[in-house]
C-alpha cells in the first residue's frame, strides 16, 4: 500500500514538471507599467508668390483611421510660412496606425490653397532590449507611392493695378519720354533768325504761307506727342500684365 502511494506521488511530480516546462515554451508578452511611447507628426506650410499680405493663418488637421489613437488636439494653426507638429500621440501596443492629414481650405481672394491629402503611417514596435516601444513615421502623398514630407504649398497671385494717368506713382522714365516727345526743337542761342525776303505786293500771300507752315509744324509735333503717349500707355499696361 505504501509502495502504491509512493509511486503515485512520483507520477504527480513528473506531471507537474512537464506542465511547467510546456508553459515556458509558450510565447508570452509581458507589459510593464509605463510600457508606451509617444509620436509627433511634423507638418509644414509654404507660401509662393510675390507681394503676399501678412497675417495669414493656415489650419492643418488629422483624422485617425480604424480607431487609431488621436492627439488631444486634432488640428494645428500655422501663421504664415512655418512648421508645426501634430501630437503628441500616445501608443501602448505594437502595431501600424494610419492617419489622414490635410489642410483646411479657405475662401480668400487671390489665394490658391494646397488640397493634398496625406496618408500617414505610424509604425510602433518593441525596442531592441524589449523594455519599451518606439515609433517610425512616414507619409504618402495622395496619388503617389513614394514617401514624402508633409508639406502644403499655397500660392498667392498679386492683383494687377488699373493704370491711372494722374497717379503720383507714374514712372519717371515714361514722363520723360512724353516730355521729350512734345517739346519742340530749341533754337541755338545767338543764332540770327533769317526771314526770307518776299516780293513787293505779295505780303498777304507770304503771311498765309507762314501761317500754314506754323500749323503744319505744330500738327506734326502734336502727332508725335500723341504717338509717344500711346506707346508709353501700351508699355505700362504690358508691365502690369507681366508683373
UniProtKB/TrEMBL annotation:
Residues 200-210 have a biased composition (Polar residues). Residues 167-177 have a biased composition (Acidic residues). Residues 152-210 are annotated as: Disordered. Residues 1-32 form the signal peptide. InterPro entries: Strep_pil_isopept_link (IPR022464), Strep_pil_link_sf (IPR038174). Residues 55-157 form the Streptococcal pilin isopeptide linkage domain. Pfam families: FctA. The chain crosses the membrane at residues 215-234. Keywords: Membrane, Signal, Transmembrane, Transmembrane helix. The keyword Glycoprotein does not apply. This is Streptococcal pilin isopeptide linkage domain-containing protein. It comes from Candidatus Eisenbergiella merdigallinarum.
Amino acid at each position: 500500500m505504501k509502495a502504491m502511494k509512493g509511486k503515485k506521488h512520483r507520477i504527480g511530480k513528473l506531471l507537474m514538471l512537464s506542465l511547467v516546462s510546456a508553459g515556458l515554451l509558450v510565447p508570452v508578452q509581458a507589459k510593464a507599467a509605463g510600457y508606451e511611447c509617444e509620436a509627433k507628426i511634423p507638418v509644414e506650410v509654404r507660401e509662393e508668390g510675390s507681394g503676399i499680405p501678412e497675417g495669414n493663418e493656415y489650419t492643418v488637421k488629422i483624422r485617425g483611421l480604424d480607431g487609431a489613437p488621436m492627439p488631444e488636439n486634432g488640428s494645428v494653426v500655422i501663421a504664415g510660412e512655418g512648421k508645426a507638429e501634430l501630437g503628441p500621440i500616445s501608443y501602448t501596443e505594437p502595431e501600424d496606425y494610419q492617419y489622414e492629414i490635410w489642410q483646411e481650405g479657405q475662401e480668400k481672394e487671390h489665394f490658391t490653397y494646397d488640397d493634398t491629402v496625406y496618408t500617414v503611417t505610424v509604425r510602433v514596435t518593441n525596442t531592441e532590449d524589449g523594455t519599451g516601444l518606439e515609433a517610425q513615421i512616414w507619409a504618402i502623398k495622395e496619388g503617389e507611392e513614394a514617401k514624402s514630407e508633409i508639406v502644403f504649398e499655397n500660392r498667392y497671385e498679386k492683383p494687377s493695378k488699373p493704370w491711372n494717368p494722374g497717379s503720383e506713382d507714374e514712372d519717371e522714365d515714361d514722363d520723360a519720354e512724353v516730355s521729350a516727345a512734345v517739346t519742340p526743337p530749341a533754337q541755338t542761342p545767338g543764332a540770327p533768325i533769317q526771314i526770307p525776303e518776299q516780293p513787293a505786293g505779295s505780303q498777304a500771300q507770304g503771311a498765309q504761307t507762314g501761317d500754314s507752315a506754323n500749323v503744319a509744324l505744330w500738327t506734326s509735333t502734336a502727332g508725335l506727342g500723341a504717338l509717344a503717349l500711346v506707346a508709353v500707355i501700351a508699355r505700362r499696361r504690358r508691365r502690369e500684365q507681366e508683373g
